[in-house]
Specification:
Helix 3 (about 60-70) packs across helix 9 (about 260-275), helix 3 (about 60-70) crosses helix 10 and helix 7 runs parallel beside helix 8 (about 210-220). Strand 14 (about 370-375), helix 14 and strand 15 form a beta-alpha-beta unit. This protein has two domains: about 10-290, Mur-like, catalytic domain (UDP-N-acetylmuramoyl-L-alanine:D-glutamate ligase, 3-Layer(aba) Sandwich), CATH 3.40.1190; about 300-440, Alpha-Beta Complex (Protein-Tyrosine Phosphatase, Chain A). The protein has helices spanning about 10-15, 30-40, 60-70, 105-120, 125-140, 175-180, 185-190, 210-220, 260-275, 285-290, 305-310, 325-340, 360, 385-395, 405-415, 430-440, and strands spanning about 50-55, 75-80, 90, 145-150, 165-170, 200-205, 225, 230-235, 240-245, 250-255, 300, 315-320, 345-350, 370-375, 400, 425. The longest helix is centred in the last third of the chain and has 17 residues, at about 325-340. The chain contains 16 helices and 16 strands. The strands form three sheets. The protein has a seven-stranded mixed sheet with strand order 3-2-4-1-5-6-7, sandwiched between helices. The chain has a six-stranded mixed sheet with strand order 11-12-16-13-14-15, with helices on both faces. The chain has a three-stranded antiparallel sheet with strand order 8-9-10, covered by helices on one side. The radius of gyration is 21 Å and the shape is globular. By secondary structure, the protein is of the alpha/beta class.
């Protein structure tokens, strides 16, 4: 292995490989299969794999799976996207501390190899970096791999694993319509493309339209389904998470991640773990995983950094990367729950990508929010302008104004809150969340 390169070396290579294809996204598997064959088919040497698709909840479900498996003593690889601060976060290898992404030297060596083997052929950024991740996973021993779909399912680069241990589809909603289709039915069918004949599939909470589409696709290919609310359930009861399926009932601690939607995400993960019979796991390990799980920018309370230092005593600062209407609903529900237990003014700081439904995301917050400050996502030319976001917020019935920076938005929001210590929520984009965590994580 090469000596430790400079911290910028991987960034230089990653920037270079973005130029191998004219499009950032071009859903197809041909280029991926070509490069994997040239690399010796690392996708055929992976450990038992949990393959996860869905619109919302993929990352949290991945985090529960990893935490519970590691609590049970298993070595776990994981692949998630996008990253928040550094690309390295996407790839985590078994045997490393649970918070440690792949190191710079390993990443550079793998990127160099994949770039060389690709030989300048057209390939998208996500395709070549996913092939690189498979190469890393194949070369390091692990008991399990948690593999998160990048977008969609059927034509997603990760969908080259022939026989995963379990497939999972978390809640499906409208997002990435320009690539996946304009309806829940079309999007759900695309995500159901990860289902495999004979492989158990865990289906999280869905709309009637989404569930019907998934059930139809599963019947067509012969994938056995385990459906939330039908084959398994999870709910809160007297400060506990109660999980039940045909094998019995588990009385577990509530997940460490806040929000009522995390009960559902945890339930989906528990069902998948119980179906992965090659990785037996006791109730104690599941309980420990729920208590110790970590997943940044999902209703994360910030406790350090310059933004926190700018708060008055007893004020709260929360961060969430949700960015579509479904995410808006679950985050609004969480804020309402917080207000019920500890009422205080709620100020939102919002930045969003231009491809997102800003009005749909903001609408659930009507009646909950005192004021919205809108911002541009730092260093992101493809974000909605603060002025456009102000218009969307006002159409959603929210009082809103724009600010030139996150810091100024916080200052103005605090001024509007008055004497009572407020609850501040920064939200609307994982890219905005990443910019915040860079200095406040």
């Amino acid at each position: 292995m090469s000596s430790e390169p400079t911290a910028e070396a991987s960034d230089i290579i990653l920037e270079r490989v973005t130029k191998l294809h004219s499009k950032l996204i071009d859903l197809s598997l041909d280029r991926t299969f070509r490069l994997l064959a040239a690399l010796g088919h690392p996708e055929r040497a992976l450990p038992p794999t949990f393959h996860i698709a869905g619109t919302n909840g993929k990352g949290s479900t991945s985090a529960y799976l990893r935490a519970c498996l590691e609590a049970g003593g298993y070595g776990v690889h994981s692949y998630t996207s996008p990253h928040l601060v550094r690309f390295h976060e996407r790839i985590r290898l078994a045997g490393r501390p649970k918070s440690a992404p792949i190191n710079e030297a390993e990443l550079v060596d793998l990127l160099d190899e994949c770039e060389r083997v690709n030989g300048g052929e057209p390939i998208t950024f996500f395709e070549i970096t996913t092939c690189m991740a498979f190469l890393a996973f194949a070369r390091h021993r692990a008991d399990a791999l948690i593999l998160e779909v990048g977008m969609g399912g059927k034509l997603d680069t990760t969908n080259v694993v022939d026989h995963p241990a379990v497939t999972i589809i978390t809640p499906v909603d409208l997002d990435h319509q320009q690539f996946l289709g304009e309806t829940i039915d079309l999007i759900a069918r695309e995500k159901a493309g990860i289902l495999k004949r004979g492989v158990p599939a865990v289906i999280g909470p869905q709309t009637d339209e989404g569930r019907a589409a998934i059930e139809e696709e599963a019947a067509r290919i012969g994938a056995p389904l385990f459906i939330h609310g039908q084959d398994f359930s999870a709910h809160e009861e007297q400060g506990h998470l109660v999980y039940q399926d045909e094998h019995g009932l588990l009385d577990l601690p509530l997940p460490r991640l806040p929000g009522r939607h995390q009960i559902d995400n945890a339930g989906v993960a528990i069902c998948a773990l119980r179906l992965a019979t090659m990785l037996p796991l006791g109730e104690d390990a599941i309980a420990r995983g729920l208590r110790e799980v970590e997943w940044p920018a999902r209703l994360q309370r910030l406790t350090r950094g310059p933004l926190v230092a700018a708060l008055p005593p007893h004020a709260e600062l929360w961060l969430d990367g949700g960015h579509n209407p479904s995410a808006g609903r679950v985050v609004a529900h969480a804020m309402a729950d917080f207000a019920q237990g500890n009422p205080r003014p709620l100020i939102m700081i919002v930045g969003m990508k231009e491809t997102k439904d800003a009005g749909g995301f903001l609408a659930p917050f009507k009646g909950l929010v005192s004021h919205v400050e809108t911002v541009a996502i730092p260093d992101d030319p493809a974000c909605l302008s603060p002025e456009t976001l102000v218009e969307a917020a006002r159409r959603a019935g929210l009082d809103a104004s724009s600010a030139p920076t996150i810091e100024e938005a916080l200052k103005r929001g605090l001024a509007r809150a008055g004497a009572e210590p407020p609850r501040i929520l920064i939200c609307g984009s994982l890219y905005l969340a990443g910019a915040v965590l860079k200095d406040n994580g």
